[in-house]
Structure prediction request, 254 residues.
Amino acid sequence: MNPDRRPLIAANWKMHKTLAEAVSFVESIQKQTGPLGDREVLIAPPFTSLKEVGDTLKEGGYSLGAQNCHWEQKGAFTGEISTVMLKEMGCAYVLVGHSERRQLFGETDETVRLKTAAVIAAGMVPVVCVGEVLGERERGETFDVVGRQVEEAFTGLSAEQMAGVVIAYEPVWAIGTGKTATAGQAQEVHGYIRARISSLFNKTIENNVRILYGGSVKPSNIDVLMAEPDIDGALVGGASLEVASFTSLIEFNV
Ligand code: PGA
Prediction:
């Protein structure tokens, strides 16, 4: 295994769990899983639980992440949260450009680019989400759409800034639908993204960038997904909300 591509299992809780539920979940998960070894687990709770969840994540290999941020450090942006504030809460990662943000809250390739740069500037790692909708896949536009999203997100970054960035490929038709992309479909796009990163940056970044798969990942399909050469982890919604299913995901077999 490439040590730079430590497997990452990320929980995106979306708008789920009160503070009490969040803390109890992370206590249980740490009790039920043994030492993570070469794996890393990321928990991205709602903003309201960040501090306490971070304080409760004591075991090695667990990291805290936010689900969104604003690109300005401060200002008159009612309801927004800046990267400086997230860093202060102990976040190491921030999800950027999740398809729900793009579809429901008007995020564009341009705001994704601004947010990505802001997260890096604040010393955190962006998990930049890309993925095609069903119609785009059916029209054979997957590579064009994903390629454009990748290119626009990382325009203007130096190779040094790009090192460490995480990409999540999440076909929108597979999110929350129970329809997972087959391991082969996911691998094909992951391989394409990796090659695209090489042409935008260089071979070292291509080899070292972690690319997660997301979209109805569950205990029954994690092993086949993780067996693919270009899949370095999973971004999980629904199956990250229950202790039993998330524990099995963390304990995937290679
Ligand atoms: P899902 O969500 O696992 O419920 O499909 C994944 C995501 O939205 O990141």
